[in-house]
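Methods, example record. To illustrate the input and output format used throughout this study, we show the complete record for Transcription factor bHLH118-like. The sequence lines were provided to the predictor; the line carrying C-alpha coordinates was produced by it.
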Amino acid sequence: MADFPEKGRKRRKEARVGNEENMEKIMHREVEKQRRQEMASLYASLRSLLPLEFIQGRRSTSDQLNEAVNYINHLQRNIKDMSSKRDDLMLLSGQSFESRNEQSRNDNSNHVVIRPCLVGVEIVFSVLQTPLSSVLHVLSEYGLCVIGCISSNVNGRLIHTLQAEVNDLALVDFADLKVYLLRLP
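The corresponding predicted structure is encoded as:
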Protein backbone atom coordinates (compact mmCIF):
# COMPACT_ATOMS: atom_id res chain seq x y z
CA MET A 1 0.00 0.00 0.00
CA ALA A 2 2.90 2.36 0.32
CA ASP A 3 3.27 2.35 -3.45
CA PHE A 4 -0.09 4.03 -4.10
CA PRO A 5 0.66 7.45 -2.55
CA GLU A 6 4.06 7.47 -4.28
CA LYS A 7 2.47 6.66 -7.66
CA GLY A 8 -0.06 9.47 -7.14
CA ARG A 9 2.71 11.95 -6.45
CA LYS A 10 4.57 10.74 -9.49
CA ARG A 11 1.49 11.15 -11.68
CA ARG A 12 0.83 14.63 -10.29
CA LYS A 13 4.46 15.59 -10.97
CA GLU A 14 4.24 14.21 -14.53
CA ALA A 15 0.96 16.08 -15.04
CA ARG A 16 2.57 19.30 -13.75
CA VAL A 17 5.59 18.85 -16.06
CA GLY A 18 3.23 18.04 -18.93
CA ASN A 19 1.15 21.14 -18.18
CA GLU A 20 4.29 23.31 -18.08
CA GLU A 21 5.42 21.91 -21.45
CA ASN A 22 1.95 22.48 -22.87
CA MET A 23 1.95 26.04 -21.53
CA GLU A 24 5.35 26.67 -23.14
CA LYS A 25 4.05 25.31 -26.46
CA ILE A 26 0.90 27.39 -26.19
CA MET A 27 2.93 30.52 -25.35
CA HIS A 28 5.31 29.82 -28.24
CA ARG A 29 2.37 29.39 -30.64
CA GLU A 30 0.80 32.63 -29.42
CA VAL A 31 4.05 34.58 -29.81
CA GLU A 32 4.55 33.13 -33.29
CA LYS A 33 0.94 33.92 -34.23
CA GLN A 34 1.39 37.55 -33.12
CA ARG A 35 4.64 37.79 -35.09
CA ARG A 36 2.93 36.48 -38.26
CA GLN A 37 0.03 38.90 -37.79
CA GLU A 38 2.44 41.82 -37.35
CA MET A 39 4.41 40.80 -40.46
CA ALA A 40 1.17 40.51 -42.47
CA SER A 41 0.14 43.96 -41.27
CA LEU A 42 3.53 45.42 -42.20
CA TYR A 43 3.43 43.80 -45.67
CA ALA A 44 -0.08 45.19 -46.21
CA SER A 45 1.14 48.62 -45.16
CA LEU A 46 4.09 48.40 -47.57
CA ARG A 47 1.84 47.18 -50.37
CA SER A 48 -0.53 50.12 -49.81
CA LEU A 49 2.35 52.55 -50.32
CA LEU A 50 3.40 51.12 -53.69
CA PRO A 51 1.85 52.37 -56.95
CA LEU A 52 -0.29 49.80 -58.75
CA GLU A 53 2.14 49.38 -61.64
CA PHE A 54 4.74 48.04 -59.19
CA ILE A 55 2.49 45.42 -57.55
CA GLN A 56 0.03 44.53 -60.31
CA GLY A 57 -0.30 40.76 -60.49
CA ARG A 58 2.29 40.21 -57.74
CA ARG A 59 0.89 37.95 -55.03
CA SER A 60 3.88 36.60 -53.12
CA THR A 61 5.52 38.57 -50.37
CA SER A 62 8.96 38.18 -51.91
CA ASP A 63 7.69 39.62 -55.22
CA GLN A 64 6.18 42.56 -53.37
CA LEU A 65 9.41 43.21 -51.47
CA ASN A 66 11.35 43.04 -54.73
CA GLU A 67 8.96 45.54 -56.33
CA ALA A 68 9.29 47.81 -53.27
CA VAL A 69 13.06 47.81 -53.82
CA ASN A 70 12.50 48.61 -57.52
CA TYR A 71 10.16 51.46 -56.59
CA ILE A 72 12.67 52.91 -54.12
CA ASN A 73 15.38 52.76 -56.81
CA HIS A 74 12.95 54.45 -59.24
CA LEU A 75 12.33 57.24 -56.70
CA GLN A 76 16.06 57.69 -56.11
CA ARG A 77 16.63 58.08 -59.87
CA ASN A 78 13.82 60.65 -60.01
CA ILE A 79 15.37 62.56 -57.12
CA LYS A 80 18.73 62.67 -58.93
CA ASP A 81 17.08 63.82 -62.17
CA MET A 82 15.07 66.50 -60.40
CA SER A 83 18.11 67.67 -58.45
CA SER A 84 19.99 68.02 -61.72
CA LYS A 85 17.13 69.99 -63.26
CA ARG A 86 16.87 72.16 -60.14
CA ASP A 87 20.58 72.90 -60.31
CA ASP A 88 20.25 73.84 -63.99
CA LEU A 89 17.34 76.13 -63.19
CA MET A 90 19.27 77.72 -60.36
CA LEU A 91 22.15 78.37 -62.73
CA LEU A 92 19.78 79.78 -65.34
CA SER A 93 18.13 82.08 -62.86
CA GLY A 94 21.55 83.48 -61.98
CA GLN A 95 21.74 81.80 -58.61
CA SER A 96 23.68 78.95 -57.14
CA PHE A 97 23.57 77.29 -53.77
CA GLU A 98 27.06 78.49 -52.94
CA SER A 99 26.65 82.14 -53.94
CA ARG A 100 23.45 84.09 -54.39
CA ASN A 101 24.71 87.59 -54.90
CA GLU A 102 22.56 90.41 -56.27
CA GLN A 103 24.76 90.96 -59.31
CA SER A 104 24.04 87.50 -60.74
CA ARG A 105 20.33 87.86 -59.92
CA ASN A 106 20.09 91.14 -61.83
CA ASP A 107 21.78 89.69 -64.91
CA ASN A 108 19.84 90.84 -67.99
CA SER A 109 21.20 88.23 -70.38
CA ASN A 110 19.38 85.11 -71.54
CA HIS A 111 20.54 81.68 -70.43
CA VAL A 112 20.10 78.44 -72.37
CA VAL A 113 20.72 74.79 -71.53
CA ILE A 114 20.13 72.17 -74.24
CA ARG A 115 20.26 68.48 -73.40
CA PRO A 116 18.92 65.25 -74.90
CA CYS A 117 15.81 63.68 -73.41
CA LEU A 118 13.57 60.69 -74.18
CA VAL A 119 11.56 62.42 -76.90
CA GLY A 120 14.45 64.28 -78.50
CA VAL A 121 15.81 67.39 -76.84
CA GLU A 122 15.01 69.49 -73.79
CA ILE A 123 15.74 73.21 -73.86
CA VAL A 124 15.70 75.23 -70.66
CA PHE A 125 15.59 78.90 -71.54
CA SER A 126 15.76 81.69 -68.96
CA VAL A 127 14.68 85.16 -70.10
CA LEU A 128 13.78 88.56 -68.76
CA GLN A 129 12.06 90.11 -71.78
CA THR A 130 12.28 87.77 -74.79
CA PRO A 131 8.79 86.56 -75.72
CA LEU A 132 8.26 82.81 -75.85
CA SER A 133 6.90 83.17 -79.38
CA SER A 134 10.36 84.32 -80.54
CA VAL A 135 11.93 81.21 -79.04
CA LEU A 136 9.29 78.96 -80.63
CA HIS A 137 9.87 80.61 -84.02
CA VAL A 138 13.63 79.95 -83.81
CA LEU A 139 13.04 76.32 -82.82
CA SER A 140 10.72 75.76 -85.78
CA GLU A 141 13.37 77.27 -88.10
CA TYR A 142 15.78 74.64 -86.79
CA GLY A 143 13.27 71.88 -87.58
CA LEU A 144 12.33 71.14 -83.98
CA CYS A 145 8.72 70.26 -83.18
CA VAL A 146 7.85 71.49 -79.68
CA ILE A 147 5.64 68.96 -77.90
CA GLY A 148 5.63 70.40 -74.38
CA CYS A 149 6.41 73.58 -72.50
CA ILE A 150 6.44 74.47 -68.82
CA SER A 151 7.03 78.07 -67.79
CA SER A 152 7.91 79.38 -64.33
CA ASN A 153 8.64 82.79 -62.91
CA VAL A 154 11.65 82.84 -60.58
CA ASN A 155 12.71 86.21 -59.15
CA GLY A 156 11.10 88.08 -62.04
CA ARG A 157 12.82 85.88 -64.59
CA LEU A 158 10.82 83.58 -66.86
CA ILE A 159 12.18 80.07 -67.15
CA HIS A 160 10.78 77.96 -69.98
CA THR A 161 11.42 74.23 -70.18
CA LEU A 162 10.62 73.01 -73.69
CA GLN A 163 10.64 69.47 -74.99
CA ALA A 164 10.96 69.04 -78.73
CA GLU A 165 11.00 66.06 -81.04
CA VAL A 166 14.00 65.71 -83.28
CA ASN A 167 13.95 63.39 -86.28
CA ASP A 168 17.74 63.23 -86.54
CA LEU A 169 19.93 64.67 -83.78
CA ALA A 170 22.89 64.76 -86.16
CA LEU A 171 21.14 67.29 -88.41
CA VAL A 172 20.69 69.91 -85.68
CA ASP A 173 23.63 72.09 -84.64
CA PHE A 174 22.83 72.59 -80.96
CA ALA A 175 25.82 74.87 -80.33
CA ASP A 176 24.61 77.19 -83.11
CA LEU A 177 21.03 77.01 -81.78
CA LYS A 178 22.23 77.95 -78.30
CA VAL A 179 24.18 80.95 -79.63
CA TYR A 180 21.15 82.06 -81.67
CA LEU A 181 18.83 81.79 -78.65
CA LEU A 182 21.27 83.70 -76.44
CA ARG A 183 21.27 86.61 -78.92
CA LEU A 184 17.51 87.03 -78.92
CA PRO A 185 16.40 90.46 -77.62
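Annotations derived from this record:
Residues 28 and 55 are 33 Å apart (CA to CA).
The longest strand covers residues 145-154.
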